[in-house]
Specification:
Oligomer: single chain
Number of helices: 15
Strand order of the largest sheet: 11-10-12-14-15-9-16
Structural class: alpha+beta
Distance between the termini: 39 Å
Number of strands: 16
Helix content: 25-40%
Length: about 525
């Protein structure tokens, strides 16, 4: 086992994601789906569950006893949840089954942080083989508070390959715990004090420059504004985090989303760019959703031949990664958002080190793609811009935050919940590429495809509308199959599954890619 730190405190992102499980906003949950060519292996999945329970995913929260101190992570001390279902799911109901598993509540504060479920898959009705087992499907859901994408992959690989797990340290007790909390509260208060001092000096320098007749360079002095509430980022990263702070909100904006154009309700879809025709199926106005508790954000998983994805990308001067970014940005245009304007896209970047015990360590790169680039599918431009954005994340220097994250983490839920939402990202594109073998085959050796996605459990149309809407997409390649997973958090432009399916399939057709939806 790797050596744990003496105490593992919740980072800002962990804390904000945790609050979503305890407040009025929707919890962020990451999901991995393995689609198998044969029935699921019950013994293998029980063993996987037991090994995951020995590692970093299996944690709970120990509340601090000193105001201002951060809560601590501790071993969950609960039995793993492995739900091996005896009722098979039809091939044409896979998407519904996957969503049902993603909707099962988790409670990371009390140690119910993740869950495995599995079912056999049978041929759809109306075929000669109807009812015959043709495969299996396995779902792993995990609270974003406990793990972002990189942490989840690491935990799964360690469990599947029998590698040493990352151990969450046991919490201190009694007087030692109280003293540790007091020390942490003092450190948090000191950080806020340093911020206040730096802010005062910056204002004094600004005033001196104004008196001297010179202005500060743009962006040197930031007026304080309330920090946005929890993000995600798929998240996360599966929601991620931009720098030290902006990456901790939940919705596509809440993933440390880029500041894009203002949020203006869209109508019928506009051309992807000047002179670019839009298929009639896409140009139809999206139906308006009913604002009731039963409405849920539509989700779609689509399988594509990976070799053809590579060929399509190369034909336009790019790679599968830049193809994915452009695909999603064009999809934003197809929904009717930002017609003829640039599309801002958030790109999660992992900063995770070896044996890193942190639950969330993602930063966000930002790229804004001009309309003409999208219209002409100029992946060479997208590739250069993405490379620049990734480089900028690695070289970014810590600046003076509008409000210190330490202060936000000290605030009670009643105050944090009143903070304004940040501008949202039009799209979050998280490409897992080809994951490690341990991750790919964690649920079985005969894996047909792997899908990954972030969900916001129970998010209503009103909540998503208030956050500004957007698209969250993940791309995972296994063997000969690339699986594109999209969640439409935009109730006014993509109100239902049929609309999302039509938009995604039309965009795949534009790239001449055969798409097989779940």
């Amino acid at each position: 086992m790797t050596d744990p730190p003496p105490a593992l405190r919740l980072q800002f992102a962990d804390d904000m994601f945790l609050r979503r499980h305890e407040g009025a906003t929707s919890p962020a949950v990451n999901q991995v789906l393995w689609r198998l060519d044969g029935p699921f292996d019950a013994d293998r999945l029980r063993d996987l569950g037991a090994r995951l329970a020995a590692g970093s995913l299996h944690r709970r929260v120990v509340r601090s006893r000193v105001p201002g101190a951060r809560h601590r992570w501790a071993p969950a001390g609960t039995l793993p949840v492995v739900d091996l279902q005896t009722t098979a799911v039809a091939e044409d109901r896979l998407g519904d089954w996957a969503q049902t598993q993603a909707d099962v509540p988790l409670d990371p504060a009390r140690g119910l942080s993740w869950r495995i479920s599995a079912a056999d898959v049978v041929a759809r009705a109306g075929t000669g083989a109807a009812g015959t087992v043709v495969g299996g499907v396995v779902s792993l859901t995990c609270a974003h508070a406990v793990a972002d994408g990189a942490a989840l992959i690491d935990a799964v690989v360690r469990a599947a390959t029998n590698a040493e797990p990352i151990v969450v340290p046991a919490p201190e007790r009694g007087t030692r715990a109280l003293l540790a909390d007091a020390a942490d509260a003092a450190a948090q208060a000191a950080a806020v004090g340093r911020w206040a001092g730096a802010k005062a000096r910056a204002r004094a320098q600004s005033a001196a420059r104004e008196i001297g007749g010179t202005r500060a360079p743009a962006g040197t002095v930031h007026e304080p504004v309330p920090p946005p509430p929890p993000e995600a980022g798929e998240a996360a990263g599966v929601a991620g985090h931009a720098g030290a702070g902006p990456a901790t909100r939940v919705m596509p904006a809440v993933v440390g989303a880029p500041n894009g154009p203002g949020i203006v309700p869209g109508t019928a879809a506009e051309p992807v760019g000047p002179g670019a025709p839009v298929p009639a199926a896409v140009a139809q106005a999206a139906p308006q959703p009913a604002d009731d508790a039963a409405w849920r954000a539509p989700v779609l998983h689509v399988e594509l031949p990976s070799d053809q994805v590579t060929q399509a990308a190369a034909a336009h001067g790019g790679t599968p990664n830049t193809w994915f970014v452009a695909f999603l940005a064009r999809l934003v245009h197809a929904t009717g958002r930002f017609p003829g304007e640039p599309v801002p896209v958030a790109l999660p970047v992992s900063t995770r080190d070896a044996d890193d015990p942190r639950a969330n360590s993602t930063k966000i790169a930002r790229v804004t793609i001009p309309a003409d680039v999208l219209a002409h599918r100029d992946l060479g431009w997208v590739r250069a811009a993405a490379k620049e954005a990734y480089t900028a994340v690695g070289q970014a220097e810590a600046g003076l935050a509008p409000v210190p994250l330490e202060l936000v983490q000290m605030l009670p839920d009643t105050l944090v919940s009143r903070l304004p939402q940040p501008p949202v990202a039009a799209a979050l594109a998280s490409n897992l590429g080809r994951p490690p073998e341990g991750y790919t085959h964690a649920a079985g050796t005969a894996v047909r495809s792997v899908a990954t996605l972030s969900h916001y459990q129970g998010a209503t149309a009103a909540e998503l509308r208030a956050a500004g809407g957007g698209l969250v997409a993940f791309c995972t390649t296994v063997g000969r199959t690339t699986t594109l997973s999209v969640a439409a958090l935009d109730p006014d432009r993509v109100a239902d599954a049929a609309t999302l399916r039509r938009l995604v399939l039309a965009e795949a057709e534009a790239w001449k890619l055969p798409a097989a939806p779940w």
